[in-house]
Every structure is written in structure tokens, then in C-alpha cells.
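Internal ticket - ligand job 313, nicotinamide-adenine-dinucleotide:
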Amino acid sequence: MRILITGGAGCLGSNLVERYLDQGHKVLVIDNFATGNREVVPDGIDGLTVMEGTVADETLVGRAFGGFRPTHVIHSAAAYKDPDNWDEDTATNVAGTVNLIEAAKRHDVARFVNFQTALCYGPPVEVPIPVTHPCWPVTSYGISKLAGEQYVALSGLPFVSLRLASVIGPRLAIGAIPTFYSRLKAGKPCFCTSAMRDFLDIEDFHSLMEAVMADGSATGVYNAGPGVGHSIKDVFDAVAAYLDVKLDTAVEMRPVGDDDISEVVLDASATEAVFGWKAHVSFEQSVEKMLRWYDAHGVSAIFSHLKPPAPAD
Ligand SMILES: NC(=O)c1ccc[n+]([C@@H]2O[C@H](COP(=O)([O-])OP(=O)(O)OC[C@H]3O[C@@H](n4cnc5c(N)ncnc54)[C@H](O)[C@@H]3O)[C@@H](O)[C@H]2O)c1
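stdout (C-alpha cells):
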């Protein structure tokens, strides 16, 4: 395959880049390094080409497709790091996605895989959330990602859009796990919310991607998660236990922020039925692997699409 991976310097993108290069495929990365690291896609790697720039630049996207002639596109680039920067979110997540779709149509790609956030559902009325649940996102990230996904679905391309649970894997730089790891190691105070999340291990993500990228496999929109909820407090307890940190007083609890969703747990039964896939790695195993990875490599940066919630009254 000749695979164009947008956001290939980010967490999911870079894990896929490594995997596809190992399998002997050719990879082109487009990344503006907004939240990704240049060092994880260095020059001089056989089979890998990197273009620095934004997917919102139609000319750059056109050049990328013209020069590389991808057979497959994995659209992993997304803007989310500043919840108030709606211009950047719409430029990357909507206009950028449209640029990629138009180029992919001109080049007749065999498959267009889009990564979607489970926050596209907004506050759920049913948990675990089925893929047929209505979408009413409440953040700029969720709104713009939903628009991007809807353009993908409208495009007529052979597409798959995976609505992902919180993936745990090398270079994870968003959310509670790197936050608690760095703060507890530095002896800094932490706070938790009661928000529940569904956590998907990177190995389970890879096995789903293998099924999704296979020739002739199904198209459409699918949930991807084990469907098991764990609270942010569970994450805190797991990290504190791993680091052997014992607090004198209980960790501060804060109400779930207005821009956050209190329960994101996905019903992936349709995905399991269509792709013959199921998540196998437990939350405990996955968090421990992640923390061992941080021990070896450190936490590079931490990003969030949320504003910090206010302290409890
Ligand atoms: N990791 C998860 O748990 C998770 C969950 C749900 C959805 N997703 C989706 O998966 C995708 C990858 O997420 P991630 O966790 O790897 O995030 P990430 O921040 O690590 O990776 C995103 C990459 O996109 C790049 N990027 C941002 N704007 C760009 C632009 N305009 N042009 C080119 N590159 C740009 C960033 O520099 C970064 O390298 C995103 O689409 C995200 O919405 C991830």
C-alpha cells in the first residue's frame, strides 16, 4: 500500500506509521506539528516521506497526492488543543478534511479511514452509546469533527470512520493518564472528576485497523471501544498505585466541567459483528503498559480539548 497518513507525527498516526513501515508499505505523512513531534517522523527512514504543513492548505494537499499517489488515506490529523480557537478547529477538522476528500476522489483511493472522537455524541441518552445514537456535540472539537465526518460520509468514497474510545498507547499526550503520571511524580496536587471513559488499548486499535484496511472490507461509521467504563478517579488510583504514592488526604474531586461529557462508553457490537473484532486488553494491563512506557520515555507534552473544571463549592 501507499498510505497517506495525516497527523502522522501524533499519537495514533505515529503508531500506525511505525507499523506500516515495518510491514513494508510506503508512507507519506502530512503534519503541522501542532500537537505532534517532528522527532517521531525523522528524515532518512526508508519508505517514509514527511511533508510539513497543514491539511487546510489545498495546494499542499494537492501536491502530496500528486507526488505520492496514495492508494489509501488515513486521516488522523485533528485540531483540538485550544477549545476557544474555533478558526483552527474548523480549518483543520472541516476544511482540511474536505481538501483530503476532494483529492482522494480525484486519485481514486481504495480506502479513506477517518478517526472520529466519541465526543461527537455529546451528552448521551443511552449508555453504552450505540453508533445509531444522535450526535449533539457541545465543544468546538466535537462540532468540527462531526462536520468533517459528515463530509466524509457524503463523499461517495469507500470510507470507514472510527468513533474511538480513549486510546492508550505510546506517545499518549492527552488526558488523565499523562497528567496524573507527571503531576504525581513531581509531587504536585491533582484533582479528579467522576467522568467515565472507555479505554482502548493500542494493540486492540491496531487489530481493528487491520480489519478496516483490508481489501473489500465493510465501509461506514463504527464505534471502537471495549464498552467498559472507568472513572477518572479509577485512572488516578491506578497511576498512584503504580507510582506507590500515598496521599495524606483524599484527592480533590471536582464536578464534571460544562464542556465535558460525564459518561462516554461505547457500544461497539455492530463493529464486532461486521469486522469480527473485539477488544481484549484490560484497562489495568493497558494503563500499566502506558506507565512503563512513560518510565522509559517520559511525557513530552500534555494537551486537552477541555477547559479545567472549576473546584467544587
Ligand atoms: N487518541 C485518542 O484516544 C482519540 C480518541 C478519539 C478520537 N481520536 C482522533 O484520532 C486522531 C488522532 O488523535 P491523536 O490522539 O493521535 O492526537 P494527536 O494530537 O497526537 O495527533 C494529531 C496530529 O495531527 C497533527 N495536526 C493537527 N492539525 C493539523 C493540520 N492542520 N494539518 C496537519 N496535521 C495536523 C498534530 O500535529 C498531530 O501530530 C484525531 O483525529 C482525533 O480526533 C483520538
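Auto-summary: Residues 6-7, 9-13, 30-36, 54-56, 76-79, 92, 96, 115, 117, 145, 164, 166-167, 173-174 surround nicotinamide-adenine-dinucleotide (CB under 6 Å). Residues 2-168+199-224 form a domain with the Rossmann fold fold (CATH 3.40.50.720).
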